[in-house]
Amino acid sequence: MALRDIVKDPDPVLRRHSRPVEVFDAKLGKLLDDMRETMLAADGVGLAAPQVGLLRRVAVIETEDGYFEFINPAIVASSGSQRGAEGCLSVPGKSATVVRPMKVTVEYFDRKGKKHKEEFEGWTARACCHEFDHLDGVLYYDKAEKEGNA
Ligand code: CO
Question: pTM higher than 0.85, yes or no?
Answer without folding.
Answer: yes
